[in-house]
Every structure is written in structure tokens, then in C-alpha cells.
Please model this.
Amino acid sequence: MKRYPRPVIPILLALILGIFIGDRYPGYREMGAAAGLFACGGILIFILSEKVSLFFPILCLTSLGYLSIQPWSSPQFHPEHIIHRADSTLYSILGVVEREPEEFGDQGAVLIINSICLRPESDDRRPYESVRGKIRVALRRDKGGSPTAHAGDTVLISARIRIPKNFNNPGGFDYTRYLAFEGIWAVTYISSKHLSVLAESSKNEKSMPVEILRKKISDQIDRITVNKQNDEVKGVLKALIIGYKSEIPPTLREAFNRTGVSHLLAISGLHMGIVSGVSFLIFAWILSRWDVFLWHAWTKKGAAILTFFPLFVYGVLSGMSPSTQRALIMVSVFLFSVLFQKEQDILNTLAVAALVILIIHPPALFSISFQLSFSAVFFIIHGLLKTRIVHSPETGYRERGRMNRIRTGLVSFFLVSIYATLGTFPLILHHFNLVSLISPMVNMIVVPIIGFLVVPLGLLSVLVFPITDSVSMLILNGAGLILSKGIDVVSFFSGWPFAAIKTVSFSFFEMLCYYVLVLTAFEIKRSGSVSLIGEVPSSIKFKGILQKIATGLIKPIPVKWIARVMLLLAFFGASVDILFWIDHRLWHDDLRITVMDVGKGNSILMELPRGGNILIDGGGSADNSIFDVGERVVAPLLWRKKITSLDAVILSHPNSDHLNGLIHVVKHFQVKELWTNGEEADTAAYLKFIQAIKDRGIFMPNFEDVPRFLEIHGVAFEVLYPPCDYAEKRKTEKWRRDNNNSFVIKAGFKTHTFLFPGDITQRAEKALFEEYGSRLKSLVLVSPHHGSNSSNTDPFLNAVDPQYVVFSSGGKGPHPAVMTRYHRRGAQLFSTDVNGAVSIMSDGASLKIETVKGSNLI
Model:
């Protein structure tokens, strides 16, 4: 049988398939192990009979992949694991900060604590008990300063341990899976007054030498003085040298994203390639001074061995992210090929890097950095091979002559950006919903500045630091000055109105169609032919219909014809997908309502017949700098549904759990009209909200001008409350404040009615049923004020008489007394906090209501 030139690739694909299945369908360890043993037996039989089998090796590797992901997708916890302490008990917790905390300005930080000992705080005589596992601590800083913890510090906190919870909405981020893949199964939330630093990292240097060294380098970078961009320069330098990205200001991170150069902030192949290239040249020059190395032709071999050490040190200092691991493994394979004087296939080398990473840490498959890193590098390599820019055993092509190499280098520099953009485009849409329109141009300017100047200077300062602090600072300041010019370039281009656009999410099927279209386009004119299954050993015999099938599969088929068939299939699939979404978004005749899971808060999407969209509230946390519900929850759901514009956004009242999530929405979606009840709030979030409305030119009528009756696409809207003169009335009626001035909106579609009462309490409810009486009657009610007992009064519920009630109450759920009232009326209850977002579909005659969870395929 003809030898396959890239044997690692099918091995990698089989392992990936097993990991993917193991994540989607966890818990079947016995079946996975049985399949693996069966495959091993089959392999042994074929070896003994000197026959060839493809099925059994693939089954074996798939089984190994399935079993390898089970500790994360279906864990079996030790009795002493910290997850068993996740209850209502208040604990005193001792632990060591695992890595440098992720900072959120003056608002707070996130600490990962391990080596944990704890005891109930109510029993201070009880000895501390050692537990396994790690805990993620979200720290909210109090006013007036707070203790600062660093990597290696021993800390004491007072907290209740919780199991992490997702916001369960379609298209939402799977937070619990993300933490599980980091080995974190418990979280807590504390204010800084409940944290004490018992021992600083300097006293723990033996236990965490790498983190302590990274902290010292971070402190060195903090001392640089460049110009007014000091904080931005420090944040980016820390990302480039030691992998700390948390100190990059959000505005600058957004600028890097908009210009398509955010990959520079993650230590990857570019940075590792520079380090290895410079190190190799330096070591080769040094060794060439020694005759013994020249006589034995060991100049390049010795340089290859020595280069591995600075490469490894840089990888460790930078935190060993998946992109760093991939680059380190790939460069190491190249160095060893120099050492053993072997020709390497670059795609096989890339597969080796991915295989090693997945063997070491199977969950890496689902990390954004792993996916973007490998897709970008694969497309760069594949594209350059197809355009005969790089050499491989397959093409047998190598550029010769200095001028030809210079020309090739310049062309390659441009094509690398193009191919990387092609490779990562659908993944970026899936994860970030952002498309940079100027990425190739900005990369050609910024990559030389940061990659070939700032990174080498930064690393040189680290090498000099132990010898002379003053020279190290001089080099760092030079690197910072150059970096500030690069930041100026990024900021300039990111300010262009059409530098980037926010757009809808790609589904898994759409990504598959895209990659098939692009990859087969490279093969559309390729010469040669290929057999679908290769040669079959003569010992394997077929009869009858199997003989005809085998003959057809063995017969060589021109590659260009296979490519054309695949291209047509992908084009057909993409066309069907487009027609499906046009029908789903614009041609449907039903009303669809989604009550999102935003914790304790409200956000309701109404998809009107024939394409209209209305959003009522946006949920929100107390501080968007720590967690932005609009960015992380509401916007992904809209983009998942292919929604980029909203006919109207309605803010029921300006409390943070209704308002804060709308800031991101009004900034990144086309909003035609925005309604508010006219009340203002003395908060920074409200000011940002109003400023975003002005910047985007969104029409916002005065409260008095908001129509009380309106029909859009067959759906009738009626503003029931507050009354037009509520501002005058509250001068004498003191209860007309805050929650009691919430919009109360009733929507009707044919025979079905829906009531959205915001956060009104019993006084407003009384005013409503006294004025409207039986007109409040609605089929579906979103429970007032998240199911609070200060709302949901009996007279109000008697007037509304709902058959279905939806709660959006946060982790604690609705008040038990409120649940009793609804149960007594025989209403069916749905909670976003239990099973996820609540979906309501009405065609005017029949109603379907169910809970839907998020589903991230990658």
C-alpha cells in the first residue's frame, strides 16, 4: 500500500473526533473503554495476520479521545473536593494565589486560589481542614482602598462557596464549561474587606518561582516612563513579554480588535519565531568562533540545541497559553529536524503540535486561542504551499537566488495576513461577531513595529535585568517609546468609521460550508487523481455488490472533479442556509417572545411577524466593567438569531438590572427608536447610556410623546402605565418613585395577550387594576419585580388571571408566597433561572411555551 505522506493528520482527526463526542455526550466511560479494547484487539489480530486495517486504529484513537476528556466533561469528585463544601455555610478559607490576579481597574479583581484549607467561621475552635481543588474568587474593591494580593501570596477570605452557574440562553457563553476546563469547580464573590494577605509572595518563592519571576518583571515594567500613554504601553508590554493581558485598557483592546491585530497581544508563532530566529543566529555566530564545532559540522546543530532553552524560558514566562504551546512545539520540531538533518513536512509538523497539546490537555480543543491559532497557521501554510511560496516535500519547490528570496519574502508577508484572515474569519464571527475590514493593511504596518522591534527589545531587557537594572530600564523605555508609536497607528486606524463591523454569528453548519468552499477553491484546478480509499490488500476479497463498490472506491478520481463536487455541495448547503434564515427572520407569520436568562433582571425579545424586532430591557449587573450582561448575554442571543437591527428598544425604568445591558446594545445594533419613562438616574451607567444614544443618533421621544396605542406587523401594543401625568402626581403621592414608575406594556396578537409589568410593586398594581380592571386579563404574564413578595398581589393577579407566568428572579428564585399564589390559580410557571431562557411562540390561535438552553458546538 502506498505510504500516506502525513500520517499524523488522520491520528489527530480521530483524537479530535473522540474529544468532541466525549464533550457532547459525556458519562459513558465503560462504553468508551469497551470500544477501545475492542479496537486494540482488532489491531492485534490484523498485525498477527499481516493485514491492513484503517477502521480499528481510528476507532482506538477516537475512544482514547473520548476517555481523555471525561475528567472535565463528566468528573468524579474525591470526597475531599471543595465542590462538596458548596452550601450556605460561611467559611474561613486559607489558600495560595495561583497566578497573578486579573484586574478590573479600581472596581475589583479575580483571584484563583489553591492549596486550600477551610473551616466554618461559626466554629473558630475547629481545626482547618485541607480540601482538594481550586476556587475562583471575584473580589469587589471597597471604597478607600483594599489589600492587593499577588501570585504566591497566602490569603485568608471569609466567603460562602458556590457552584458556578451559566446564563442559559441560545448562543450564550458556557461559563461553567470554561471554568471546568480550567480545573475550577467552585466560585465565590466577596468584598475586599473580607480578604487578608497573611504572607506575601516573597516568602513563598520556593513554591512558585515562575510566578514570582513574572511578578518581578511586571514590577520592572511598571517603572517605565514614556508619555501620556504610559498605562497603555505598560499593559501591552506585559502582554507581549509575560502574557499578562488583564491590564490592557478595554478601549485599547477594542482598537486592536477593530484593526485585526489583536493576535499580537497573545504570545504565539510570530513572537516565538522571532525569539528562535534571533537566538539561532546568535548561537550559530558564537559557535562558529570555535574550530571544533566547524570541524565536526556542529555549528547549526549546536545552535539548534541551544536555541531551545531561551525558547522554553520565554514560553514559561509568558504563561504557556495554547498558542504559545503550539508555537513552542512547532519550532522545537523544526530545531530537531536541523539537529538530525531531516526534511520536515510543515503541515505534519503543525499536526504534531496540535496532537501533543491535546494529549497534554484535551480541553484545549475548545479554547478560542487554540482554534484561532491553528486555523490561522493551517491556512497560512496551506495557502503558501498552494501558491508555491514555501517548500515542502509535496511541492518539491524551493526559491533560489537573493532577489527571488526578497521578492518571495515581501509577497509572503502580504499573503500571510490574507490567509490568516481567511482561516479565522468564521471563528471570529462565531466568538466575537466582529469583522475587521482593514486587517491586512494594518498588519503590514504594525507587525514590524511590535513583532520585530518591541518584542526583541522587551526580551533583551529581561535578560539584562539580573545583571544591571539601569540598562534594563533604558532598553524597556526604548521599547515602550516604539510601542507607543505602534499604539498610535492602531488607534488612528481603529477610529475609521468602517474599520470593522459587528455582525451575526456563524453556526457550526455555516462554518463547515465556509471551510469546504475556501479549501476546495484551492484544489479546483489541481492536476492528478486520488483513490477514495487507496489500495486494498490482496488478502481482502469482495464479492457481488461489494466488489462493484470497492472497485469504484479504488478507481482513481481526478482531484479537480472531487473539488468541484465538494464546492457544489458546500454552495448548495450555504444557499439552503441563507434561504432558511430569510424565511426564519423575515417571512414568518407568528409572534416569538424570548424571556432571557439574565439573572435577577429583565430582558425580553419580541420577534414580530414579517421581521420586526422589539427589545424590552437589557438586564444588567451592578458594574459593567466586571460583567457586561449586554455584551456577554443579550447581544450573543441577538446575533445567534441573525438580528442586527431593532425597531424599538424599551427601557422600563433606569435600574441597573434593566438598564446596564442596553448600553452595549445601543452601541452595536441599529436601533430605530428608544422609549423610556422619562426618569433619570444618578449613575455612571445611565450617563453612558444617554451618551451612546446621542452618539448613535437614535430617536428617543419624550415620555409624553410615546404612543399609548401602536400596532406593528399585526401586534397591538398598549402602554398602560405610568400615566402621562405621573411626574405631577408623584409630588403628592410619594409612592410613585423608582420601580413604581416602570413601563407596563400589554401586547396582543390575534387571540393571545401578553403583559410586561416591569418592577411595579403593590401600590402601582393597585392603581392598575383600579383603572383597567378586567382589561388587564392576559394569557401570559412576566411576573412583576422578579417574583418579589412586595408585588404579585392577589387583587392584581385576579385581574390579570394568567394561564402562564414567567419568572426572571436570579439564583434565589421567586418568593415562596408568590409561588403559592400562582399555584392556587392553576397557572403554569416557567423560570429562566431553572432551565434557561423561556421561548413563547404564538400563531394567534395556538401557543407553545418552553425553556431553551444555550448550545455551543465549539
Summary: Residues 14 and 58 are 6 Å apart (CA to CA).
